[in-house]
Amino acid sequence: MTKQGLLEIERISADQTVDIRHVVLWPEKAKPDVVLPEDADGTHFGASINGALVAVISLFETPEGIRFRKFATLPEWQDKGVGTQLLTHAIQWSRKKGERRIWCDARVSALPFYARHGFAAQGGVFEKSGVAYTVMSREL
Ligand SMILES: CC(C)(COP(=O)(O)OP(=O)(O)OC[C@H]1O[C@@H](n2cnc3c(N)ncnc32)[C@H](O)[C@@H]1OP(=O)(O)O)[C@@H](O)C(=O)NCCC(=O)NCCS
Predict the structure, then answer these.
(1) Cβ-proximal residues to 20 (8 Å cutoff; 6+ apart), any chain
(2) Which domains, and CATH codes, for the chain?
(3) Beta carbons of 18 and 35 less than 8 angstroms apart
(4) Which residue's CA lies nearest to atom 4 of ligand 1?
(5) Which ligand 1 atom lies nearest to the CA of residue 117?
(6) Tens digits of per-residue pLDDT, 70-125?
(7) pLDDT at position 40, please?
(8) What PROSITE patterns is this protein classified in (predicted)?
(9) Which distant-in-sequence residues (6+ apart) come within 8 Å of 62 by Cβ?
(10) Residue 133, helix vs strand vs coil
(11) Whose CA is nearest to atom 1 of ligand 1?
């Protein structure tokens, strides 16, 4: 429960992630550009409040552990704990699978958030489409 209503986290389809990915992460790109070729092989979770999707995250198995991508909360729902609950769910799901590590290409703007969740930077800063990133990872 949040102050705003009932928060539910459930598995969703890749298609259901697209609108939030687009509006939060890449509003200046065309919507099809936020679809990943590997989406069909991913596991996607969404957080809904009173039945409306407000945050998404997509998980992919890699040799280095679970990689999450396209993690986004609608602006009007940010800073209310929704992302923390969704990331915690992703971590628990990864642990249950027996995974040892979870990682992402983190936007530098989100580094404090990941540091607060036990992630540490691996290597330096790089750029994709004009956005600065660092690989962040943590043991599970
Ligand atoms: C990063 C992101 C997914 C986090 O989702 P969120 O729903 O805002 O996450 P939370 O609300 O749990 O935490 C965000 C901040 O709010 C704070 N917060 C959490 N609950 C809170 C509450 N009840 N009241 C006030 N602040 C709160 C947290 O401490 C956190 O601060 P920090 O960023 O300094 O660590 C979201 O900010 C987002 O979509 N950002 C833009 C896209 C992006 O950068 N995605 C990540 C790509 S790597």
Answers:
(1) 53, 54, 55, 56, 72, 73, 74
(2) 7-100 (3.40.630.30)
(3) yes
(4) 83
(5) 35
(6) 999 999 999 999 999 999 999 999 999 999 999 999 999 999 999 999 999 999 99
(7) 97
(8) GNAT (PS51186)
(9) 103
(10) strand
(11) 110
